[in-house]
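To illustrate this point, what follows is a protein record of this kind.

___
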Amino acid sequence: MMLVEDNAIKYQAKLKQVKSYIERLEKLGLDTTKIKELVSKIDEEANKMIADNYSKFAKTVLLEDSLKVDYSSSIRKIDEVIKELDEEWNTYYKIHNTCLSIKAKLKNVNEQNIVDVVKEAIGLLNSLEFSSTISYDAEKCFVDETYQTIYQVLQAEAAYSKYSSLFNYVKDSETHSIHICELLDNDLSKIDHKDIRAVYEELQTKGLSITNYMDKRLFFLMALYHNPDIVSANTKKFLEKANEALEKKEKYDDLVESSTNLSEYNETHLSRIKEIKKKIRKHGLLSFLNIALVSSIIAGGFFISRKATKDNAKEYYTITQTYDSVTGETTSTEGYAGGKKEKMKITEYTPWVEPTIFKEGEYTRSKVSFDVPDEDIHLYNNLEDYLNEDVANHFSSDYRQYSSREESQKELPEDYGYVGRKYVIERTTKDLDNIHYKENPYGWIGWTVGIALAAILLDIAGYAIISSESSDDTIFEYIKAKKSETKELKENMNSLLETRERLENLEISTIATAKSALDVYNNLPSEVQKTAEVAKLYKKLQ
């Protein structure tokens, strides 16, 4: 006979299980007298039945079967007790331990781990919502413990997170709001603080309902009041962000000056080149050369224009796939398009950030895009496979040439509710063997461009011929000076373009840093805002 079929051993295991349940409930402060009496009664009856069996059926084949029946009956009774404990108290046991877990994490909460704490807190409220309906006196201690924990997390969320997931979850439930606002009201009645009292009195004008106190400003101010370290940390954060923004502004001003100087230099070069061209034309030799070589110009223009027209007329069969990480869907479009290059771009969107709590504004999110190198466009068949740690690290270290922008929207965005970051991947592939040609209605443009390019090339060739054959050194010097000025103009123009690109990126970064600093400033207590160092930097940011 196998061990698991020994009903006597099975009964003892069940008895130990229900006793361990009782011990855990007693540690929670619950009165388990009735449960222990019931279990004791079941055990006494079981022992009495077993004793009677030995008295009636000793040394007979009926003893074992009779014992099995009586043990099975006792096991069923114990199982009923365990089932009742599971249905009524198991959820509360989990709630209690979840509260302990959250409180432990709150001791070391920061901007990095607040999201995990908030998720656990929302899960805690879900557990409470689906708990069994029993006497409130019996469950009161768990309910009070839960809302005290949620109240603390709401303050931490207001202080450390730019999102309001838990706040909105509580506000959307009248039951949760009433319990939390009661704790908040009791807390506020004991506090005499200028900023807190100002917001508190403002909210009281909304009416009798206690749920009017569900205002994120209050939770933030309460967090500052109960934890002065948050004030110090936010003050330090503002000073760092403000100084960083001002340093970027100084670099921006330097780049503006460099850009202005380069523009002036380029104007000077253009003026010099214009003067040199006038002096060269005075010799009248260039016209003669152009007339003599007109047939070459036309032939060159014809060749270049035909080449351009033919290339422009080519269209390749393309497939463009777009993947959205929020919906998990991939869409495709197909058709013919010009150009041979295949391309792929990955765009990362941060979650939408709602307007700051002290002023109206816009919902914003950061948008970062970068192109995937040609050799990695066909690395994976499925676009979503690119979103893995190895590829992400490879992008970051090797070729993350990205451009960053900030998007804004006044109304609540449709995809406001997504958590984490959103990725959109777009890949365009071409079948280079599947080509067709179309009539180009703008072929005359190619002719014109081709003839113009040929004329410019022949001008340069003409200058070279004149300078090599003429005994007049003046023309040679003019040509040499024109080449020098043109080269320097090109270099300065490239520098100007690079400077302007750096200006654009720095301007975006400066504005974002300054906005971040001002957001922190707006959340500082008024007495901190008035301190000399903070007030001075704030004024410079305006």
